[in-house]
């Protein structure tokens, strides 16, 4: 902004100082925008990440590979031993506490800001329940996509939350964050600079409350919130265990624990029995000896809401903060935690857990799966272009073999057929189970991957037959190649994308490429977060809040008070409960 209202900006925080803020409310000053122009907002609202874009697939694969190869060298958790090891305390004015949980949030603006807007409102009325704004906000991981770059954090996470709650309200809400795998892609550098700070401890209108990438918060009536940094899949670091040893000294038989972890390893352990080992180790060695009970395990990572109920504990996944929807119809109806076939020694006794609630429901999730046919080419034009390029090269190679042209130029240009067949088959096999993904490669991965590759080769053969029936291939050189690029490429890419969509739908029914089936659609709707209430008597009530449809049109808020959100939806958001509230005592 270059007008007379242009404020001074802190380059570390990107928040403008203005005399319009209320210092009495404990808030920071922020210059309100007069339009939705990015120069007024101070950030650029982004579209959802196109997860099947070729360059993004390559870059994400490289980041994952680097994290696997060099993650231990980039791990900064040991270095955090030099930071303060404070234990926070959160209690509301009435002796109870309202607490929000949101995860997987830094994606497209419409979904991310819709959730942030609801979190920031002074009160929500949901299915007859009046739910005031929480005094504590927990971000459960993957605060940004696709990587932990500074620009991504500003545009996809911090900017939308700044717009939702520009300054700190009188109750001074506090923010705690658990790092997810996408936060770890830069070795946790950006995460620590945003959420673990010794000065200017604000994130929009929320005050940041942690001193490391993990935290402990004493809550009312004997409840505790423990946030675990367990993302790398390796052993828990010694400084973190030492920190929680100190926390454990304050726990007792009357203590009840909410444990926030980066991923729902209780579900992932169905296919990867060792996934739950570190969480089980933490509970068994840190919490259990004190006599305290872990009553609630909570995580994001899977982008839906799911609750498993057990004899003494609830296991909740709530990753609906903004990222693409992940299906619920593939969830197991019953799990054992820890799994009986875990490799961990001295594991805790296994207990059964039943799937008690999910959002969206299984029927709606299946309907979403069928949307892959129109959404795949629309959401991922780069992927469709890649398929069109591959099929054009396959067609030219097959046509060269079929016609055995005498023209030297066309013979030199023709692509070796065997090389293209190998590329196609390997690409399909790796797509079914990328080398960097977790879990074992089973026979179904090979069968479906090879079957998909053969189907693409069959499509290429049919396309070659159809192309040779047209007059373009007999045109003088280089017109056949130009015609193939202009005419054959787009059509074959679109047809091939529908073949990929059909493959994903079939593979998803066998538990293969389930993530790609939904990532390729980029579904923005069906978002969720949790609002929890701890009463002074110790009763914990969990309200799972669902948003069936996020807002897509925004306007500048006519309410110009400092605490009000900068932007409001043109059509009201209608939150509801994903299931009836769950009560723990």
TrEMBL record:
Residues 1-36, 556-585 are annotated as: Disordered. Residues 557-567 have a biased composition (Polar residues). This is Metallophosphoesterase. The chain crosses the membrane at residues 51-74, 383-401, 413-432, 453-473, 485-506. Keywords: Membrane, Transmembrane, Transmembrane helix. InterPro entries: Metallo-depent_PP-like. It comes from Micromonospora peucetia.
